[in-house]
Amino acid sequence: MATIFSKIISGEIPSHKVAETMDYLAFLDIQPLTRGHVLVIPKKEVDYIFDLSDEDYAGLWIFARIVADGIKKAIPCKKVGVAVIGLEVPHAHIHLIPMNRVNDMNFSSPKLNPTDEELADTALAIKEQLKIITEE
User: Fold this and answer.
1) What is the pLDDT of residues 52-107, one digit of tens each?
2) Is residue 136, in this structure, part of any structural domain at all?
3) Based on CB atoms within 10 Å of each CB, which residue in 22, 43, 49, 106 is the most buried?
């Protein structure tokens, strides 16, 4: 059964993409912890991040680093935090979260509820900072 992320990859579910290659996709979390919270996923549907092949695992992290650089340039923050939890969606993914304080990475905190227009503006701001070509 396809995960929600696979449905985003196929276009069945809309998303605010910030970067895409043949193998990986980065898009905004629709209930972010902070503005600019991005999910980075392999297009290959694998539940557990450590079950990815060495090549896919390394590629995912390299792609995440590129996206994090774009986030840091687009969103005022001290650092971009990284989290791999993997319980909420059975599809390997990395959370990239702009942070100014440790509590910005607290997944128990109330989530933001940005409008579609705010999400679109944030995605555009990040895209403009990225040095990779987004395939759409």
Assistant:
1) 999 999 999 999 999 999 999 999 999 999 999 988 899 999 999 999 999 999 99
2) no
3) 49
pTM above 0.90, yes or no: yes
Catalytic residues: 93
Q: Within a domain: residue 115?
A: yes
pLDDT digits 0-9 by tens, 87-98: 889 999 999 999
| Residue 35 maps to a domain | yes
Give yes or no for residue 46 having a pLDDT over 70: yes
Q: Could you tell me the residue range of the domain that residue 90 belongs to?
A: 4-129
How far is the C-alpha of 56 from the C-alpha of 80, rounded, in Å?
22
Q: Is residue 121 part of a domain?
A: yes
Locus of tokens 């579910």 = 13
Question: DSSP states of 88-131 as a string?
Answer: SSSS--EEEEEESSGGGG-TTSPPP---HHHHHHHHHHHHHH-S
Instruction: Report residue 53 as tokens.
Output: 């092949």
Q: What is the CATH number of the domain that holds 114?
A: 3.30.428.10
Residue-level pLDDT at 2:
86
Number of domains in the chain: 1
Share of the chain above pLDDT 70, in %: 95
